[in-house]
Write a structure and sequence with these properties.
The structure holds 2 protein chains of 2 kinds. Chain A is an all-alpha fold. Chain A is about 50% helix and about 5% strand. Among the domains of chain A are: about 120 residues, no CATH class; about 200 residues, no CATH class; about 200 residues, no CATH class; about 80 residues. The chains are: A mainly alpha, B alpha/beta. At the A-B interface, helix 1, helix 16, helix 36, helix 37 and helix 40 of A face helix 7, helix 8 and strand 14 of B.
């Protein structure tokens, strides 16, 4: 054996620095041998100075006596008088935390520390060398977003005839104050496209454009109001606006990693739920409650979909790989829940308080674990979207099927055992021949096993099993089962030339061992038959043949049992016949008929089985008080925290006594109520701002998911509060909010530039125009399908991959966290691993490669060309039709000329697209199709 | 889009132009790019200035996925010979599976180069380049399982939602060649974990590594291949689109976002030929191809050189599909054959880069996601080992002919000058002129870094 010192030489105390007895000697020792090492190797991460720099590790201070004795996250660093048990010494020995991190100190230095601690750890450092800086914590939450809403009246404006909707007062008031004047109103043609894309994500048809123009010519306001109602009533509204919410809810069907997690086949239920609830204009506070606690709200058995499918908000959350660090993975999953719900509903970055108090917002680490406790212990679950009766009936039906399957299996097992039983009298023969076959296999002789078996009277199935069983490589297995055969593999095979199997002589040693085993087996079999005979009556109660044989077996004495199990009964015994082989090889005609009949019954049961009811992915349960994870580390637990909401929102104090904290209940439903309360300063403001952002491209608050101190201040705080108040008064109705915004003059501005305004307000912060913007990838792809006339507008149902043949709306595409579809990714679809506050917009050549060369675009270009060709033969009218379909307008004379000249120029012989198809592709590739005015 | 970090004030417009135009010669296009740098505010691939003067401009990561054994490659341990078969006390360290006694390396080591650094006999050609190589023998990482360790090596965290190193580099530095992806991953098939290893995470999608399965120039970038139109016709079509877009733009009195899309379309058009050419190794001379030898890994190394030569920021060359270096059993044959199929290519790459003057600002990193145990698994294999392993660096401002750090007597755990993967990342970023604490991205309400809250630059290995 190697001496311990070889591996951890540092453990051996070499020349232990003698600490000495006198106090002054101890002090000298500390000053000369301990303090310099601490300063040089430890203070960088374990001192007040490190804490002030934000570099403190493990909550451990080594720059004062108290700091060392109190220790950090894992307990005291030193136990004076007991170096062996001191964590510091362990760490220096590279056990547990390996310190210092860049390599062990010389063993003499470690020995100094051991000596110093064993001698009482004399330490003169009353105070750390630097004072702890006060962390600026927002005590009074005076930040605007944490204040109640301000009440206000509509501000006065001078150009009052510009105002169309109350919110215009706020916008115009500010514009006037900044010396800006709004650009003119958008043309009716621009407006109709804007409204269609904004509300349903699809372009208007040429007829719809014309209808709006006609109505608008009569009464602009009334035309808009009517169109808004019409679009809000369209089921496509939910598809468009549901997708906005799905960004926030980080909706996806799978997980980021590869191992062990399957795609959730019913993920689409949540997506469809969001779409339906928006179409129904479910009040937003209800929308929140159903997503957080649908299962805890009074049951609505007639509509389980409505009640449960919203739980996908929680149930489709992240699941992480748990093989290497389960506690951390579970903590990460909780964090996903907390992050998504706090940013999503309240615009708060509570996740930042997972490891330490929030650096900027009044959110403590206790707040984080109070929230986490509400979800701790929850299970991801598939929730039936059917009545309890339907579920029960299905389960009963499934049980009948399972029972039948089990019955067939046990019948086959019984039959198989009887087959094996008949061979027991041949055990000696099989052992002998098995030996020969196993040896021949090692010698590599090629021969037909079947022929050989018929020569010597073996069944090839059992011959093969014995050959494997007696393989010299498995000698351990053989002597474990049959200690009496432990010399089996010691018997040497005689050398000699082998041409056929019988050339290999079976040695006498094997013959006698085989005979010995045969005698024992015969005896055991007799005992078995005897019990079978004597207990005939009792055995009549057996459930089936398999059960009957098992009962007999249990009545044998131990020795017989062992023998029979090892040769016959258990799964790897050589005379065991598995069910499959019993079925395929060994059945008699009668048995065959019996089994076939049972299988027929099973098949019929399966065929007539009740269909599986739909399920939704949600969660069940959850709610256990947690201890703070110090520095976010689940291994280092701190104080108990009662479940509850953020102290910022809920002013009710949480019990601090550990026992009280554990008992204190606060459910998901309590949380949902507090989040969806009109008194919550954040929730309603956050959704109103999101809706504003989705209409205008940017919010009144630029950081839609962060209303904290680091978020942007609102551009129009009074407007935000007024609109929020009205929103609540109008029953948290999103459709109400849309109407307010869409009928405003602010919304209906043109997207035109104005150099004077631009100089004063280049970012259009004060909303002097409508911002032109790129369509999201969903609206753009859907538009291409709609223009080409190929869109399949079927709603709902399981997801489909975005392959070229897929003509459904993009909202129904598969969304992966592991590998997002390439088209979605390249066009800035958000990463579904985390809640997304807004889409980024990048413009890169890879997007244009898609436009130039993808099968999707090529197919749509062909479809558009074909559609136009079937409508009319006249080239000018064809061009006009393309413009009307794609852009909702007629071409200008310049555009007509450009088109004609392209269409009349010859292409090249090897082009696979006709000139018309090339032209249509150019239209689909154009900026006008992708950018909304 | 959040601002990455303040741009370096001294970068000249000419510099910018030169970098942006790096990939093509045509003056006409250069002027397109000149416009673009002036107006395209939302092109995330424009070159950006580093935080300070960089030593390296690009990285080639030869990724030995599966985890090569340090004690059989670059960290010889004579004590294994002496105590072969015995179970040392430290062997109880947690690894993935059950292990047995110490297992001596089946390979001989030879002092190589002027520096005399010992290299295993299975890498005879790499050994000849050792004076350009810095072996870090004191690497360590967090867990002994492939998935989390692959993620750690690539994206600095064991859970899969963060951007990968290549994505961070492109985000921090942009691309030197607008016609090619900034981050290319040459990997036949799919390693364990797969796309998360080159994911852009929450960074914009364009920073994702461009995964190349087969070196077929026609399929290197999605939709790169125009199958429908002759080049002349496609040019006509492009002119048509441009004309339509110009009319649209004129009606609106100018708009940066419309303008930049017009330009990106032009670039896409050039990319079709430019990118296919870049990946086409058949254009190399016989002498150059011989330098690398043959086989998929050799071809990938050669393609990597062509790519970095053309301004690709980071190229990762995976050794192979699955986790090839994962020799739990029969390590001798496994390691020997894998070394054999990569030794010449690796040395060829180093020599080729050097002879072209590229090695001085191209950083080559060789290594796996972790190492292997000095104790045996089964008869003749080694288990995963995250406590200590070796990687090496060459070129790009790193000192050659040196070793850094040490493992213990048996090569089980790093003990001296330990380098965590976070430290490696910090060092790589540093060599590329980026401060790993300043390269941040605001997401979910906080600033994220490749190195999270960790990472120390290993200054001692920097030339």
């Amino acid at each position: 054996m190697i001496p311990q010192a070889h591996l951890v030489g540092t453990l051996v105390l070499l020349t232990v620095g003698s600490v000495g007895g006198a106090p002054s000697a101890k002090l000298d020792f500390f000053e000369s041998r301990i303090r310099p090492v601490l300063v040089e190797h430890c203070y960088e991460c374990h001192s007040v100075d490190a804490a002030n720099r934000g570099k403190l590790k493990a909550g451990l201070f080594l720059d004062s006596r108290d700091g060392m004795r109190k220790g950090g996250d894992t307990g005291p660093a030193i136990l004076p008088g007991n170096a062996a048990e001191s964590l510091l010494v362990k760490a220096l020995h590279q056990q547990g935390p390996e310190m210092p991190p860049n390599g062990a100190l010389p063993s003499s230095v470690i020995a100094d520390f051991v000596g110093w601690i064993d001698e009482g750890a004399m330490d003169p450092r009353d105070e750390p060398p630097t004072a702890l800086a006060k962390t600026p914590k927002v005590e009074a939450p005076d930040h605007w977003a944490f204040q109640p809403r301000q009440q206000s009246v509509l501000p006065k404006v001078s150009q009052s005839d510009w105002v169309q909707s109350p919110l215009d007062h706020f916008i115009l008031h500010r514009l006037e104050k900044e010396g800006l004047s709004p650009v003119p109103r958008a043309s009716a043609r621009t407006l109709v496209r804007r409204l269609y894309f904004d509300l349903i994500g699809l372009p208007p048809t040429p007829a719809e454009v014309e209808a709006f123009l006609k109505a608008s010519a009569v009464d602009e306001m009334a035309a808009v109001a009517t169109l808004v109602e019409q679009l809000l009533d369209s089921p496509h509204y939910g598809e468009r606006w549901g997708r906005h919410w799905l960004d926030v809810a980080r909706y996806a069907e799978d997980q980021a990693h590869t191992f062990g997690v399957q795609k959730r086949a019913s993920a689409h239920q949540y997506r469809d739920w969001v779409i339906r609830m928006l179409n129904e204009d479910l009040p937003f506070d209800q929308f929140i409650k159903l997503q957080l606690a649908g299962d805890l709200i009074d049951p609505a058995p007639d509509d389980p979909f409505r009640q449960f499918a919203g739980l996908g908000f929680l149930g489709l959350g992240a699941q992480y790989y748990k093989n290497s660090d389960k506690a951390k993975a579970e903590a990460d999953e909780l964090d996903d829940t907390i992050d998504t719900l706090t940013r999503g509903f309240m615009g708060l970055t509570v996740s930042c308080a997972r490891c330490h108090d929030h650096k900027f917002d009044p959110i403590s680490i206790e707040d984080y674990y109070a929230l986490a406790g509400i979800f701790q212990g929850r299970n991801y679950a598939e929730i039936p979207l059917a009545s309890p009766e339907v579920v029960k009936a299905y389960q009963a039906d499934q049980k009948v099927i399972k029972d039948k399957e089990a019955e067939i299996k046990s019948v086959l097992r019984g039959m198989g055992k009887q087959v094996g039983r008949k061979q027991l009298s041949q055990a000696g023969l099989y052992f002998r021949e098995g030996w020969r076959l196993a040896i021949l296999k090692t010698k590599g002789l090629k021969f037909s096993l079947d022929d050989y078996c018929s020569q010597v009277g073996l069944h090839p199935f059992f011959a093969k099993r014995f050959q494997d069983f007696l393989d010299p490589g498995k000698m351990g297995e053989l002597s474990r089962r049959f200690p009496e055969l432990k010399t089996w593999h010691d018997v040497p095979a005689k050398a000699g030339e082998l041409r056929e199997p019988s050339d290999l002589q079976i040695p006498q040693g094997i013959v006698s061992l085989a005979d010995q085993i045969q005698a024992l087996v015969t005896q055991a079999e007799k005992a078995f038959s005897k019990v079978e005979e004597e207990e005939r009556e009792a055995l009549a109660n057996a459930r089936n043949e398999d059960d009957r044989l098992n009962q007999i077996m249990r009545k044998l004495d131990q020795e017989d049992q062992r023998l029979l199990k090892n040769i016959w009964f258990d799964g790897s015994a050589p005379f065991h016949v598995p069910e499959k082989e019993t079925r395929e090889v060994f059945l008699t005609e009668t048995q065959e008929a019996q089994v076939t009949e049972a299988e027929g019954e099973l098949e019929a049961l399966r065929k007539n089985a009740l269909p599986k009811y739909p399920v939704a992915h949600g969660i069940r349960g959850g709610g256990q008080a947690m201890q703070v994870y110090l520095r976010g580390n689940p291994e280092t637990k701190g104080d108990w925290v009662a479940r509850g909401n953020l102290q910022l929102i809920s002013h009710e104090p949480r019990p601090s006594d550990p026992e009280e904290a554990k008992k204190h209940t606060y459910t998901r439903l309590d949380l949902a109520h507090e989040i969806a309360s009109p008194d919550n300063p954040l929730t309603a403001r956050v959704i109103v701002n999101r809706v504003w952002q989705w209409h205008f491209g940017k919010g009144l608050v630029g950081t839609a998911s962060n209303f904290g101190v680091l978020g942007d201040a609102p551009s129009h705080p009074v407007l935000l509060d007024w609109l929020t108040g009205q929103f609540i008064e109008n029953g948290w109705s999103l459709k109400w909010l849309h109407r307010q915004i869409l009928t405003s003059a602010t919304y209906q501005l043109a997207s035109k530039d104005d150099s004077q305004n631009r100089q004063k307000d280049p970012d259009n912060r004060w909303r002097w125009r409508f911002d032109r913007r790129r369509l999201e990838v969903e609206a753009w792809r859907d538009t291409i399908l709609a223009v080409a006339g190929t869109l399949d507008d079927t709603m709902g149902g399981p997801t489909l991959e975005l392959k070229p043949g897929n003509r459904r709306r993009t909202v129904y595409a598969s969304i992966s966290r592991h590998q997002l579809n390439g088209m979605l990714r390249i066009f800035d679809f958000p990463d579904a691993n985390v809640s997304a506050a807004a889409r980024t917009t990048t413009t890169v050549p890879q997007q244009q490669l898609f436009v130039l060369n993808s099968d999707f675009i090529i197919a749509q270009a062909k479809a558009l060309a074909k559609q136009v060709a079937t409508e009319t033969d006249d080239p000018s009218r064809q061009i006009t039709l393309v413009y009307q379909l794609a852009f909702g307008r007629a071409p200008s004379s310049e555009e007509l000329t450009v088109a004609r000249s392209f269409l009349t120029t010859e292409g090249q012989a090897d082009d696979k697209l006709s000139r018309w198809e090339q032209y249509c592709q150019a239209i689909l590739a154009s900026n006008e199709l992708m950018y909304l005015d | 889009m959040p601002q990455p970090f303040p741009h370096h004030p001294t970068i000249s417009r000419r510099d910018l132009l030169r970098k942006a135009g790096g990939g093509f010669a045509s003056l006409g296009l250069a002027s397109v790019l000149a416009d673009q740098t002036a107006s395209a505010t939302d092109n995330p691939l424009l070159p950006k200035a580093s935080h300070f003067q960089p030593k390296a401009k690009r990285i080639i990561h030869l990724f030995m996925n599966g985890g090569p054994s340090q004690v059989d490659t670059f960290d010889p341990k004579p004590a294994l010979e002496k105590y072969h078969g015995q179970r040392p006390p430290g062997a109880e360290r947690k690894t993935e599976r059950r292990t047995g006694g110490l297992f001596k390396s089946p390979f001989q080591f030879k002092q190589s180069g002027e520096s005399g650094i010992p290299v295993s006999e299975i890498f005879p050609e790499v050994a000849k380049c050792i004076d350009d190589i810095c072996v870090i023998r004191s690497m360590h990482t967090d867990v002994p399982n492939h998935e989390p360790s692959l993620l750690m090596m690539n994206s600095g965290i064991t859970q899969p939602i963060r951007p990968s190193m290549g994505s961070w580099l492109c985000y921090g530095l942009g691309a030197e060649n607008q016609n090619l992806p900034g981050f290319v991953v040459l990997c036949p098939g799919k390693p364990v974990v797969g796309p998360q290893l080159w994911s852009n995470g929450f960074l914009p999608g364009i920073y994702q590594g461009c995964h190349i399965d087969k070196l077929d120039p026609k399929h290197i970038v999605d939709h790169i291949n125009n199958t429908q139109l002759s080049p002349g016709t496609q040019r006509q079509q492009l002119d048509l689109i441009n004309r339509l877009n110009r009319i649209h733009l004129a009606d609106r009195g100018g708009d940066d976002q419309l303008e930049s899309r017009i330009q990106s379309l032009e670039i896409a058009f050039r990319m079709q030929t430019e990118a296919q050419e870049a990946f086409d190794i058949t254009r190399e001379s016989k002498a150059t191809r011989d330098l690398y030898g043959s086989g998929q890994f050799a071809d990938s190394c050669l393609a990597a050189r062509r790519l970095v030569e053309r301004g690709v920021r980071m190229v990762q060359v995976y050794f192979g599909n699955g986790q090839p270096w994962d020799d739990h059993g029969n390590l001798e044959n496994g390691h020997r054959s894998k070394a054999q199929s990569s030794d010449r290519a690796i040395a060829g790459l180093l020599r080729d880069l050097k002879s072209r003057g590229l090695l001085e600002d191209t950083l080559v990193l060789w290594g796996g996601e972790f190492g292997r145990t000095p104790v045996s698994e089964g008869q003749n294999g080694r288990d995963h080992n995250h406590h200590g392993f070796s990687v090496w660096l060459a070129g790009g401002g790193v000192k050659g002919g040196m070793t850094y750090g040490e493992t213990d007597e048996f090569g089980f755990a790093a003990v001296k000058n330990k380098v965590h993967v976070h430290d490696l990342h910090a060092t790589l970023l540093h060599l590329l002129g980026l401060d790993h604490e300043k390269l941040t991205y605001r997401y979910s309400g906080r600033d994220f870094r490749l190195t999270d809250v960790h990472g120390k630059v290993v200054h001692d290995i920097i030339a």
